Every structure is written in C-alpha cells, then in structure tokens.
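Many introductory courses stop at the sequence. We go one step further.
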Amino acid sequence: MPLSEEEQRLLDEMERNLYGSGHDVHSAAGSSARLSSRGIFAGFVGVALGLVLLVLGVTTQLLILGVAGFVVMFAGVVAALSLKAPMTVRSDSASSSTSRASRPKRRGLMNRLEDRWDDGR
C-alpha cells in the first residue's frame, strides 16, 4: 500500500531526526578514556577481599564483619569502573603523523575508520 505525500514527508522527517539523534548518541558514547588494567585488578582484589569478609561475617555471625565485606565489595566494583587510563594514539610512520598533525583532531569510531580509509590502510 503506497504512502500518501503527507505520510512520506513525515516518514522522511522522522528518519532525519533518528539519524541525527543516533549520531549524537554515538559521538557522546565514544570517550577518550578506557578502563585501565590496574583499576580492574584493584577492583577484582577488592571484590575478592569483600567476599571473604562477607563469608567470614556470616559464618561467625558478626553483623559488622558482613557489612564491612559488602562495603569492600562495593568499593572494589566502583574502583574497577572508575579508574580509567587515557587512550594513546599510535603513529605508524613519520609521513602519516605529519599528515595527521595538519588535520583537525576528530574523535569517534567512524572518524577513525574514515582516517584509516583516507590513509590507505
């Protein structure tokens, strides 16, 4: 069943809005930092230590030890997710780094893919 002109116009407008908002969400989601392995390790140790404290608190029936274990586990998860390391940009050769230096810095996956396509890699 064909769409009327009004329906087609509304559909086109909705598609434009959808593509515009999708690009905004994607560019906001891409960040210049990533989780560090040190932060993940610290979080893992915190969760493991907190679990041990929690189990000890349950077996000895000490409420304060169980609560302390839960708090340590929570702190471990927060540490694992909040400690971030900045991403580094690697340059393969001096010629590509000079051509990239003349261009404005762009972020995001699509922009990096476009840069790689332009460089012929």
